[in-house]
Design goal:
about 450 residues; mainly alpha; 3 domains; about 75% helix; about 0% strand; globular; Glycosyltransferase RgtA/B/C/D-like domain-containing protein; transmembrane helix; transmembrane
């Protein structure tokens, strides 16, 4: 029986075989005295270059997707809203740049009122009776006149304290704000984090064994769902949602036994989340603690060092945030409830906030269910995603659901209907991660039925 090389030589000739497999040509063998020519082994730099080339090719499509995403959001920038919360983050950013409180407040107010004037003008351009009229400067002037003395309301110290305890987002944004202005600077940081969030999800899906195309689909879903709609606004949602995707990547690595890598990514994501909004980081840590405990109790194959690390890091973060909050007297659950039911302390505090929370949640979720029954734009893809995650791996379903459930938990704590889409944006992470996994499962099972073979389970 001929070897593979002999078969190729019969069909191609010795000269072309040498070119194809790295051997010697006839002239080289003659020059070598007929002993045969052995090329020098490839050096380590050549192997590194090949690996870098493969990685570059692998990042070409995700990079193109990210570029398109960024370009679209740059185009949409005038339509983004500089909100009351954005004003407060901008004021903190200017203070980090060295401005006094009064100067920072004035600059942030100018940015807010300019955006208010732009919003009014955009509405005028769509008014069939006024679209030909010149721009009215009065909205900007009224905004400045109403708020210049005391700053943009609500300005109760208890409400201001909530934003003063969220330092990391305005701190990161400060150089961008100084260079680009308040709205553009805050939006740039949010856009950077959200773009990175798509890559975190891509990396998590690749670790789970998905093909490059299906992983890019997950990246695309991250960019076209409310994860990006809210994540690219000049708000803290961008860093928070991006860190949830990073936590997913770290948790997957831990469940696969890559303890050092997983622990580093997971801890860094929790730390950034805590610096941006400590209450959200604590909530994510609590849901992940529950997920890790459930795995250790009910899923035998996850009883290994990586899962214990996931449990320890999550429970430890929950305890550390609670301790720091107590020692520094940070606004807690009671302050959050009073903030909701007193309209940021513009009304008197309520006597029974927990009872009011229960009652308002009852009204909120009943009407939300009716809305979803008419147009299940969230519920239907969410159900498909959860089904795909569960079919793939129970531990994976627990992890992704725990991260997405932080959005539901946030709405339960703040059942404010007109803010609900923003507050539960994190739940779309389940859809962005679960739909590509469902599609991968469908493809795998179709291949198995056709070939009559079984494949080992991929993922944690």
């Amino acid at each position: 029986m001929s070897t593979g090389t002999e078969w190729v030589e019969d069909r191609m000739g010795p000269e072309r075989v040498a070119d194809r497999i790295g051997g010697a040509t006839g002239a080289e063998r003659a020059a070598d005295g007929g002993r045969g020519f052995t090329p020098p082994p490839a050096g380590p730099h050549r192997h590194r270059r090949r690996r870098l080339d493969r990685r570059a090719r692998g990042l070409a499509l995700p990079g193109l997707v990210a570029v398109v995403f960024v370009v679209l959001h740059l185009f949409a920038f005038p339509a983004s809203l500089f909100s009351n919360d954005s004003y407060r983050y901008a004021r903190s950013a200017y203070e980090y740049l060295g401005d006094t409180r009064a100067d920072a407040q004035h600059k942030a107010l100018v940015a807010f009122c300019k955006d208010e004037g732009n919003r009014k003008y955009r509405g005028q351009l769509l008014d069939e009776m006024k679209f030909t009229e010149p721009r009215d400067p009065k909205p900007y002037e009224r905004c400045m006149k109403a708020s210049e003395a005391k700053g943009l309301g609500p300005n109760d110290p208890r409400y201001e304290r909530i934003f003063d305890t969220r330092p990391l987002y305005p701190l990161i944004a400060a150089p961008f704000v100084g260079l680009m202005g308040a709205k553009a600077g805050l939006s740039a940081v949010s856009l950077i984090f959200t773009t990175a969030g798509g890559f975190f999800l891509l990396a998590a899906l690749r670790r789970l064994g998905l093909s490059r195309g299906l992983a890019v689909l997950g990246q695309c879903l991250f960019y076209v769902t409310p994860l990006a709609t809210w994540g690219t606004l000049p708000l803290a949602e961008g860093p928070l949602l991006s860190m949830l995707a990073a936590m997913l990547l770290g948790a997957v690595a831990l469940l696969q036994g890559r303890v050092r890598t997983g622990a580093l990514i997971y801890t860094a994501a929790l730390a950034v989340s805590a610096g941006v909004k400590y209450s959200s980081a604590q909530m994510a840590a609590m849901t992940m603690t529950a997920a890790a405990a459930a795995m250790l109790l009910f899923v035998r194959r996850t009883r290994h060092r990586g899962t214990w690390w996931l449990l320890g890091l999550s429970a430890g973060t929950t305890a550390i945030v609670a301790l720091i909050s107590k020692l520094m007297a940070l606004p807690g659950t009671s302050a959050t409830l009073q903030d909701t039911f007193s309209k940021h302390w513009t009304k008197p505090e309520v006597a029974a906030p927990w009872q009011d929370l229960f009652h308002l949640n009852h009204n909120f979720w009943w009407q939300w269910a009716q809305q979803q029954a008419l147009a299940p734009l969230l519920v239907f893809p969410l159900a498909l995603a959860l089904w795909g995650l569960w079919r793939r791996s129970a531990p994976l379903a627990l992890v992704v659901t725990a991260l997405g459930a932080t959005g539901i938990a946030t709405v339960i704590a703040h059942p404010v209907y007109f803010q609900a889409d923003r507050l539960y944006a994190a739940v779309w992470l389940i859809t962005a991660a679960g739909l590509p996994i469902l599609l991968d499962e469908v493809i795998k099972r179709a291949v198995q039925r056709r070939c009559g073979t079984a494949e080992p389970e991929l993922g944690p």
